[in-house]
Amino acid sequence: MQIFLGTEKGLFELLPTGGVHRICCPELDVMDAVFFEGYLYVCSPTSGVYEVRGRLRRAVAGNCWRLVKVGETLVASITGPSLYDAATGDKIADFSEYAERYGWRFLKGPAHITDIAFFRGKWVAAVEDGNILAGDDLATLRPTRFWGDSHALLAAKELLLISTSTGIYYTQDLENFAMAAGLSGYTHAVVQCGGYLATHMISD
What we know:
By secondary structure, the chain is mostly beta strands. The protein has two domains: about 1-95, no CATH class; about 95-204. It has one helix at about 95-100, and strands at about 5, 10-15, 20-25, 30-35, 40-45, 50, 55-60, 65-70, 75-80, 80-85, 90-95, 110-120, 120-130, 130-135, 140-150, 150-155, 160-165, 165-170, 175-185, 185-195, 195-200. The chain is globular and about 50 Å long.
C-alpha cells in the first residue's frame, strides 16, 4: 500500500524503510492526492486540481481542498463551495447560494466542502464552516440542521460520525445530532482502524 504525504512543497511518498521521496510538484502546496484511472491527481488549496502525466496539467482552477472517489467519478471540492469532476473539469454542483443564505464562512476565505460520505441511502457532505449537506445525489445536496466547523465524515454501522473543531458528533438519521461523550477538542479526522475508531486531534 502506498502512503502519500501532501506538503507545502509537493507530494511525497512514505518508503517502507521509513524515509520519504518527492513524487512531484515541488512548486505546489498539496492538500490531497488520488490515483484515478491510471493517473495521479493532485489537489492544491492555492492552485486547483492537477493531473500528473509526466508533466502537470491543470484540470480544475480555483482552490482545491479534497478529492473523493464517488462511483466512477473523482470529485474535487473547490472553494465556493462547489464540486467538480476532477477528470473532465465539469462542474457538478455549486452551493454558493446556501453559503450566502446561511452565513457559511472559512477563516481564510469562502467555505468549502471537506469530506463526502454515503450514509443510509444518502450522500452527505461536510462544510467548513457551515451546514452538513445531504441528498440523493451530489447535485441535489441540501442543508441539514447541523452547523459547524466540520472536517471529516465516517459512516460507521448505524452512525454517521462528524469530526469538528469542538469534538466528534454523531447522528442516526441526519435530523438529530449529538456530541460523542468523553471527547472534546479540535478534531481534524475520524477513521476506522481495525476494531477501533481513531481521530486526529490538534493539541493546544
